[in-house]
Write a structure and sequence with these properties.
single chain; 432 residues; mainly alpha; Cytochrome Bc1 Complex, Chain D, domain 2; 3 domains; two-stranded antiparallel ribbon; two-stranded antiparallel sheet; 20 helices; binds heme C
Length: 432
Amino acid sequence: MQQSCCLRGVRKSYVRSVLILGAAAVVVGCSSGGQVGPQTKPYLLPIPSASELARPRTPEQAGLPAEATRAAIPRDNPQTADKVALGQKLFFDGRLSADGTVACSSCHDPVRAFTDGRRVSIGIKGRVGQRNAPTILNAVYNTTQFWDGRARTLEEQAGFPIVNPSEMGQPNLDAAVARVATVREYRKAFERVFRGPPNSSNLLRAIASYERAEVSFDSPFDHFIAGEKDAIDPSAKRGWALFNGRGRCTTCHAVTRGQPDVTTFTDHRFHNIGVVIVRAGTVGMARQAEQVVTPGDMGAVDRTAIQSDLSLLGRFLVTRQDADIGAFKTPNLRNLLMTAPYFHDGSHPTLWDVVDHYNKGGDQNDPFLDRDMQPLALKEAEIDDLVAFLASLTSPEYRKPALKELARQRKLARTTRPYRDTARAFGPKPGG
Ligand code: HEC
Ligand code: HEC
């Protein structure tokens, strides 16, 4: 672990990549902060370490959009190797949390494609949140961050979990900075990277730079799109056709300038797809949220989203438009086999469950349901094909565990299909 933490074996391709991603890695020493002692509480899991999978990734991957990647780096925070390395160190360091037990990596573990495998995340002192942790892989391409888009940039995003009482629980960012500043190696690294002592904006900049270096493509599907006809199997090819066709998936996952978006699979917009069962009470909850959340106060939105059952209001908390009640961000669809369970609330355990949800058209009684949700009348074999296509979006570093997970999900889906509703899937479409 110590050896991989130091990442001394910098490969040639990583060095070449510095221009784009600052992906060479030289880390700030190897002391791993915030290791928890004997496990007295079941939730006190050791902080995931910076294993091989935590390395900044090479930009030389099939499917990686070089120009869009460059364009996604903000001018006021250019990528450098030292900054990425500092950000990596911070991302895995429990010292950012109030009691030293939780790092960013506790909920964004590289072994699980930077997620936590839980339905909803757990922060300090075993505090349970309301939402499922998305991956930070390819978050560089997100035009907003969080399921409800309450943060615009990765810099802005990183400040929220540090001070959220149910996540890392610091009273303010300066408390995290003060803790970091007690460590000589950090002081040296901040001096080297930012020419000054640790402060909150540079701490967030370093973390964001590390996240921007975590790009993951090179999947069988990317090779297929690049012209290798046999890179994916016939079932995945049929799934890709359904994804564009009768599955209607590309209405949101997505079409850019008339072409399917094979890079991020998202329209970067917010939709209510009927995951939350919206009942009469929901509008009342919206009115309640208007009382407790000051307009434009994203700190208050963050606490509501993570700590309160008003969380299900989704994008509404940010925009206060009734049309956004229960709307969430269309997510990227890469490495899904590593990021189960699914949806903003982690309610759907397998990809078969997800497709069952779409097949029945979501919850058609939801007054705020997106117009593009309707029954799809997909047969079982077609559902399998869609899953095979989604599975083909797995990057090579996750190939083995993803195969295992696919087998696990397939087995589970053979006996347990809580979201399947064949009558509705093959029933009438709304309005006709
Ligand atoms: C206790 C678990 C937990 C910790 C600790 C945590 N996160 Fe998260 N993270 C989440 C959850 C849950 C969400 C989704 C919350 C939401 O959308 O309301 C999230 C969302 C994100 C997103 C948005 C991704 C997207 O696609 O919108 C990024 C980026 C991110 N976290 C990075 C970080 C960083 C950086 C840190 C450390 C400073 C961190 N997280 C600490 C659980 C956690
Ligand atoms: C109307 C827009 C829309 C359509 C159509 C749509 N999606 Fe989605 N998709 C979303 C949104 C929004 C979410 C997040 C919803 C939530 O969590 O509440 C999502 C989530 C997902 C997820 C879960 C990802 C994760 O990280 O949890 C998968 C998988 C998925 N969609 C696949 C598909 C497939 C396959 C189709 C076609 C059968 C499809 N989607 C059609 C908008 C859409």
